[in-house]
Amino acid sequence: MRVIALDVGDKRIGVAVSDPGGVIAQPLEVYHRVGFGPDCRYVQALCKRYDAALVVLGLPLNMDASRGFQAQKVQAFGDVLAQAGLKVCYQDERLSTRAAQQVLISGDVRREDRKRYVDQLAAAVILEQWLAKESRQKEAL
User: Fold this and answer.
1) What pTM did the predictor assign?
2) Contact 87/39 with Cβ under 8 angstroms?
3) From CA 141, how far away is CA 123, in angstroms rounded?
4) What single-letter DSSP state applies at residue 116?
5) Closest CA to 4 of 61, 35, 45, 36
């Protein structure tokens, strides 16, 4: 089963997808937001194109694990996706963008080019974390 992961921001959504076995995450693209309706249809089309059974949304918790305004906005988008019939879950995304930036810096990506890739790479980090968590839970059974 494939899984789609989203790093939802106010202007852009970073997108990553897993392999069919649900083991490996790869960055896919960056979507420029329009509004809840078009954004939801875009995610539905992605799920159909990749035959994804689940959408993982990065949840931007505060460093003390509390939910702030941005987390509420992500959850509101998740509610829209769920109402559209998609299965949605959340993954703590604290420091995912920083990890993505570090990967780009270590890969010698020019500063001007990093903005193009950081959101989709952050989505891949979120998806990797979620896949690892799911794998540990399956092993514990």
Assistant:
1) 0.88
2) no
3) 27
4) H
5) 45
Q: Give, in order, the Cα–Cα distances in Å from 8 to each of 14, 33, 67, 77, 135.
A: 7, 9, 15, 9, 24
Alpha carbons 118 and 96: distance in angstroms, whole number: 10
Dist. CA 88–CA 54, nearest whole Å: 6
CA distance 118 to 98: 9
Q: Report the sign of the C-alpha dihedral through residues 46, 131, 122, 105, in that order.
A: negative
DSSP structural state of residue 1: -
Q: Please give the residue that has the higher pLDDT: either 4 or 115.
A: 4
Residues in the chain, how many?
141
Q: What is the pLDDT of residues 46-85, one digit of tens each?
A: 999 999 989 999 999 878 888 888 899 999 999 999 999 9
131: which 2 tokens?
């896949």
Handedness of CA 30, 115, 103, 106 (dihedral sign): positive
Containing 77, the helix (H) or strand (E) segment is: helix 69-83
- Using alpha carbons, list the distances in angstroms from residue 66 to 49, 54, 92: 35, 25, 11
Q: Work out the angle between the directed axes of helices 111-140 and 96-106 (0-180°, nearest 10).
A: 120
